[in-house]
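[job 4471] stage=fold_predict status=RUNNING
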Amino acid sequence: MTESALPEPDRVEGAPHPRETARLFGQAAAEAAFLEAFRSERLHHAWLITGPRGVGKATLAWRIARFLLATPATQEVGLFGAPPPPATLDIAVDHPVARRLLALSDPGLFLLRRGPTEKGDRLATEIRVQEVRKLGNFFALTAADGGRRVVIVDAADELNTQAANALLKMLEEPPARAVMLLVSHQPSGLLPTIRSRCRMLRLNPLGPEDMAQALAQGGIAPEGDPSALAELSGGSVGAAVRLVTLGGQGMYRDLLRLMESLPRLDRAAALKLAEAAAQRGAEERRDLLFSLTDLMLARLARRGATGQSPSAEAAPGEAALLRRLASDPQKGRAWADCAEAVGARARHGRAVNLDPASLVLDTVFRIQRTAGG
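[job 4471] inference complete, writing structure tokens
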């Protein structure tokens, strides 16, 4: 199998690749911070773009790459003086740089991401040192037309130890006119020396309006209340795409209806949930079910501990359920213990390939016992 036949490791299934995404929603503050540094002519050579998964970190990295490669390093002074400094990262989609980046053919860009295994039949599970060494060859070349060179690392969290140390050496001695953009979901896991050599841009979860616009840009039409989807996905567009693709909103409503019967259990509904999880080819939906169960238990624990309901419902009727089942800190603690036990049981069950239906029913019965005190 050729490398081009393998799936792209930085693409979310069901959504456009970040380089194909023209606009970024909900992250105006991060864009403004980068533009301010650019206009001040004190552009840092390395930027660490952080935030939860799916909020637009890679999209911002590609927007910055397009902007830097399409904007002249030195502005020519014409008859009426120098042109005004750029006020946005937007670059026209028909710009030559935009077209080359879309085709991954621009000589000024290097994309560092997971490559194929030694056999070449699948993607590696981490970014290995041989991929970073290719970056060294890229830096050894003369920049086209004396312009900039841009590197996108997606994601820096996937660097193995050797690769991280090799990248650190390049961060310590960056070539002239080079900008490195590191995407990281969990920057605390990176080498402290890598973090210290980067300027951080932190992105935040999206609100309902920005979420709806981002999904519409990708041609994705969610069902129901956009506020509920934003709440259920934690403001992550990537998580929202997965929820829409796998029917996660309906799944969460089914889970909510099942829990509304507690402490008495609707056994027919529980069996239906277990049977659906056991169907052939339902692995992704089953994983999503356990993720949504974790979310529900976490919201119950938080409601009990703080006495505060979430700012928005993830499904109709959720607020009333949380108030009834998590009315005080003691019950909040019980739900936290339940979440820990259910999570550990689910991880163990999947690791040893336990019957999915049994695993779902085991989870439901544990939740029932917690609700009954």
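[job 4471] summary: The first strand starts at residue 46 and ends at 50.
[job 4471] exit 0
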